[in-house]
Amino acid sequence: MADIEPFDSTHFLKHLTHQPGVYRMYSAKDEVIYVGKAKNLKNRLSSYFRAKVDSIKTQTLVKQIANIDVTVVHSETEAFVLENNFIKKYKPRYNVLLRDDKGYPFIFLSGHEHPRLSSHRGAKKLKGEYFGPYPSSWAVRESLRTMQKLFPIRQCEDSYYKARSRPCLQYQLQRCAAPCVKGLVSDEEYSQQVQLARLFLKGKNKQVIDSLVTKMETASAELRFEAAAKYRDQIGALSKVQEQQWVSGDQQEMDVFGFAYRNGIACIQTLFIRDNKLLGSKSFYPKVPADSSADEVFQSFILQFYLAGNKLIPKQIVMPCALLDEQSINQLLNQEAGRKIQFFKGVRDEKRRYLELANTNADTALESRQNHQKSVFARYVELESILEFEQPIQRMECFDISHTSGQQTVASCVVFNREGPYKTDYRRYNIEGITPGDDYAAMAQALERRYTDVKDQDKIPDILFIDGGKGQLAQAEAFFDDWPHEKAPILIGVAKGSSRKAGLETLILAGSHATIPMESDNPGLHLIQHIRDEAHRFAITGHRQRRRKEKNTSKLQSIPGVGAKRRQSLLKYMGGLHGVLQASKDEIAKVPGISADLADIIYEHIHN
Question: How far apart are CA 368 and CA 366, in angstroms?
Answer without folding.
Answer: 5
